[in-house]
Amino acid sequence: MNVQSVSSYAFFDDEPADTRAAIMQATYRALCEHGYAGLTIQRIGDEFPKSKSLLYHHYDGKDALLVEFLSFMLRRFEATIPDREYEDARDQLTAIFDHTLPRDPAPERAQFRAAMVELRAQATTNRAYRTHFTRNDRFFRERFAAVVRRGIEEGVFREVDPDRVAAMVVATIHGAMQEEATTNGAESAHVREELRAYVRSQLLAENVTPETIG
Amino acid sequence: MNVQSVSSYAFFDDEPADTRAAIMQATYRALCEHGYAGLTIQRIGDEFPKSKSLLYHHYDGKDALLVEFLSFMLRRFEATIPDREYEDARDQLTAIFDHTLPRDPAPERAQFRAAMVELRAQATTNRAYRTHFTRNDRFFRERFAAVVRRGIEEGVFREVDPDRVAAMVVATIHGAMQEEATTNGAESAHVREELRAYVRSQLLAENVTPETIG
Q: Residue B198 and residue A195: Cβ atoms within 8 Å?
């Protein structure tokens, strides 16, 4: 499970550009449907319009394919970071909280996130997964730190430590996602609201009116 | 992975009181050594001084045994909550942060936490694990909320929403633990320090000197 999972499913609305993208799309669909434990190359093949032998030929088992899938998703995310115009850094942070901890997550998104919890667990023993999630988490911490730095430059945030803030925010979002995927009583709405309260009390500069945060 | 894992290993220093406790101790040891994926009833039996057939007789596979193990740990934790005397509620929160996100976790503890990430991932598809982790997380949220309520009553904390604070703190600690178990570059020290900063800026009453928090 990771922050990346948030936007990833939107990647697969379009017709895949090439064979590799088609394999990644099939992997995504099979992962949502069967989860990690239920996933087989055969089942990925069921979602793949071309020859299944291509899959067997290219990948040495489902873990090799899944690690490439994770890497593919992260690279695509890196390349397509929305340069949406936010009013300011606090506006951007709030949008990220709403996006990562939505009020009513779509079922497909919940399924994908559950599968990501399973993939993440592989990283406790499998070095390739571990390398991926190390890179993944570093990327998201750096993204958050950049937003905080921007806020400091804008005068919206105080002179906080951007890396420290980013470490906490990413951990909080990951923890809330994990809880959603593994329990029935997750309190994501509470987490989202308290993250906003944290931004107001810990980040917001003295001269900025808290009410404008929404 | 859960807050409970923090103290659990200390449960097994003593000689087990009965056969069931001995089975739980053997399960704990085998889980630390082999992780979830590598665990078998046979390997638990290797840690068990009595007849292995007892294990096969009692438990219908490793998941049944592990779910009972999780439940055993949580109940023991519930029953043995340290009624240590803390100066006040903020002192208690700081102690919990230091305890759950320690500077140098012992190798056995890191192994156990990694196994807990694997067990937690089973809850995405297995109802018995899911029921356990639902109860587990609720328990820890309630524990944190009680500390926050105490702080409000003491006049140390402001009139914050204890349930909301608890939801965020538990998510943050779980996220940091997950990251430690699944990546090489976890930033737990940053998370711990930022949680302290959050307590100072968001919880601490106006008339309390932040410096005394340490």
A: no
- A130 contact B CB<8A: yes
- For residue A101, how many other CB atoms are within 10 A of its CB? 23
Contact residues, chain B, for A126 at CB < 8 Å: none
Q: What is the chain B residue with the closest CA to A138?
A: B185
pTM of the shown model: 0.90
The rounded distance, in Å, linking the Cα atoms of A111 and A116 is 9
Name the 3-class secondary structure at A118. Answer: helix
Q: In whole angstroms, give the CA distance from residue B138 to residue B52.
A: 35
Residues of chain B with pLDDT under 50: 1-9, 213-214
Strand, coil or helix: what is B204? strand
Report the pLDDT value the prediction gives residue B6, as an integer from 0 to 100: 41
The answer to whether A10 contacts chain B (CB < 8 Å) is no
Q: Is some CB atom of chain B closer than 8 A to the CB atom of A170?
A: yes
* Distance from the Cα of residue A147 to its chain's centroid: 16
Rounded to 5°, angle at Cα A82 from A79 and A85:
145
Model confidence pLDDT, tens digit, residues B114-164: 999 999 999 999 999 999 999 999 999 999 999 999 999 999 999 999 999
- Tokens coding A102: 């939505």
Closest chain A C-alpha to B143 CA, distance in angstroms: 15
pLDDT tens profile A61-86:
899 999 999 999 999 888 766 656 78
- Taking contacts as CB-CB distances below 8 angstroms, the residues of chain B near A187 are 141, 163, 167, 171
Q: Which two tokens stand for residue B25?
A: 């101790």
A140 φ, ψ (degrees, to nearest 5): -70, -35
Domains identified in chain A, total number: 1
Q: What is the CATH number of the domain that holds A168?
A: 1.10.357.10
Can you give the residue range of the structural domain that contains A180?
5-213
The overall average pLDDT reported for chain A is: 88
Q: Residue A5: what pLDDT?
A: 43
DSSP A143-198: HHHHHHHHHHHHTSB-S--HHHHHHHHHHHHHHHHHHHHH-S---HHHHHHHHHHH
pLDDT recorded at residue B172: 98
